[in-house]
Amino acid sequence: MLTAETVEAYTWALEKFLDSMGNEKMPLSVMTDGDKAMRRAIKTVLPNARHRLCKWHLKKNAVSNVHVPGFLCDFEKCMSMPTEEEFEIAWTNLVDNYNLHENNWAIEVYKKWHLWAEGYLRGIFFTGAKSTQRVEEMNAFMNRFLKLRLRLFEFVQAYDRALAKFPHNEAKAQVESENSTPILSTTMKRIEQHATDTFSRAILKKFRNEIKKEQSLFRVVKVEIEDFWVYYLSRYQQEDVTWSVYYQPTEGIMKCSCLKFESIGFPCCHMISVMKMEHLREIPSYLISQRRTKMAKSSSLHGRTPMSEWVTQTTRYGALSTACVEMSFYASHSTNAYDEAREEITRLTFKMRELYMLHVQNQQKVTGEENNVEGTSMHFGIGDPVIIKHEGSENSAKDFIPKAAGWSANPNSNQAQILDSNFGGWSTIPSNGFEG
Q1: How far apart are CA 271 and CA 143, in angstroms?
Q2: What is the tens place of the pLDDT at every residue in 288-311?
Q3: Which residue, among 347, 319, 28, has the nearest Cα to 170 in the 3D structure?
Q4: Model's pTM, two decimal places?
């Protein structure tokens, strides 16, 4: 949280965000609530990123500034117009119908049409997101673990418990995608089966919805132009609306005028309709975005600079400590369980200590450095405060260290320090994507 909402503060926060990402790739898209200082900072630090205003905040401001029944519904329809021409017509009608020609809010919000009108944001990759609701959901999620008055070490422990939920949920979704087979539920069995084998579970659900939408489409005409074909499609009882899909069979290239594929990263219903008419058994590889597949996570790690040994070690330490919490809870309820747990822990500790010493010895052979294995500190993450001797202080100053300092060795505090940069007020979509 920033203490000052100024251009300088937001610029600093964005620069630190890029540093934490290694400055390897710049974000493609950014979504905010419309703060002017934030917009200026984004334009300075992320000049090539496409900026979008949060739909929820726009609707909230609309209700606050135009107190006319029915306006919000019409304004939302105007925001969702699929083309630039339709948006301009809808906005003109909106201003005329509600007499907003002199309304300051309407004048100002129209000046920023390129930041919120759907027709001007087509083809920009926002993964389908239209609001910063994900940030608000994260705030609500964290509030389940945090109380109003917490000591510092209690906050770190609570924060660590909250963080432990994220990898658990992510791992659960990954296991479901890789090890379970959903029942085919559409009429396009071959295409759906290929999508099941390829896409993550979350994307598969959205892809199925596109297959269902396809059922109301029909072909108007098919035009052959050299080595590619153009399909013109319309929808049942909406004959005045058409979409064009360009398909090159030899290369498997397909492009749709709705630009939904470029915005969300998987085929739209118009493309699926062409697949059906072409009797394709699989989704063309051109339409499979790696970030949407089951292997997105493993492929995103390929080629990256490996994390430092300290970061890896501390992350493992926190994960193992968290994993033992549940076991300790059950083992503490009976004498037999407690004794068995203590025995197993002692056995495992002895074994892990041998492996650790072997690892250190191998490291010494590689680096040529001699370290005292026995005297290696077992404290990770946040350590005890440094003792500063003031004039007149005695060696007994160490006795005045608060006993609460012992919490620094608590494993629950380490993961929070490592992963703290994962949370913030920015609803920013990185260029490598992350939908499971």
Answers
A1: 43
A2: 988 888 876 655 544 444 445 655
A3: 319
A4: 0.56
